[in-house]
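chain below, 339 aa
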Amino acid sequence: MIHDPTTRTEARLPAGTPPQLVVVVDTEEEFDWRRFDRANTSVAAMADVHHGQTVCERHGLVPTYVADFPVVTQPAGSAPLREFVREGRAEIGAHLHPWVNPPYEEVVDAQHSYPGNLPEPLERAKVEALAAAIEAAFGERPKVYKAGRYGIGPHSARILEDLGFDVDCSPCPAYDLSGDGGPDYSRVDAMPYWFGRARRLLCVPTTAAFTGIGGALAPQLWRAATSPLASRLHAPGVLSRLGVVSRIRLSPEGFDLHALTRLTRSLRARGQQVFAFSYHSSTLRPGCTQYVRTVEQRAAFLGVMNDYFAWFLRDFGGVATTLRRLRDRLPGSGQAVTA
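prediction:
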């Protein structure tokens, strides 16, 4: 489920505006991404969050930390962020992991790990509990929301409107999460748009897309290449090396500098104005995610961040902004668009 296309209008900056770069950090507890357990609430990895913050500050970037309930309700999680936010070096938002966010009423499984699959009253209650916890920890209500596992649903827009959010950055274009009950974003692009009943909410999707000569056939080609049999034959890598189709997310998690610059150039040629760079806070502690297992790998990860930011802001002619600043700059009307 994506935001209702009948309540969407395109959000575009004036022609000639330089490309805009925002950084969104999924700020969460450490857990095995293959299983969900309410007991997994450790936020020890937050002691390493400063590594990414330092790289951002080196380039004048103010990241938005979309934080979940375990992070904001434990001193070890909230204290580092509180310092960044208080000093204007970062902004705070909300990130809903339902299985570790009260009220605890749903079955803990893959289906219910996507917030948008919950009954509306329960999804609403969880978002409200998270917003209240963030206000208690930081002295301000969050205005930015990102659903855990990119899992928005049919009631999410109404809930965000009612609870005073301004920006949603949940969708992840080019990714089909329907295998375990999530949304299918495989045919969604990364363009920002206004949505909701009053078209007051701004959606800035995660920047991700298919690139290559596959063109409009890219979703079907990728789906075929990632079938169990084709995957065993390494079909995704073969298609990528041949330039037929690659799926790239604007993140150092699994993607190198060449891939990130290729994605950025490709999307810019399609008219993309806003680029949302993202990663998980827990990746900065070696061993917490598949992307960084050693201190050396973390150094390489931070190196990709540093080099991409330098390229985007210097060679590519881009500028740094935040989700909230971007919303303030965008004209509040546009032409109706469809999914």
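The first strand starts at residue 8 and ends at 10. The chain has two domains: 11-207+250-329, 210-249.
thats it, cya
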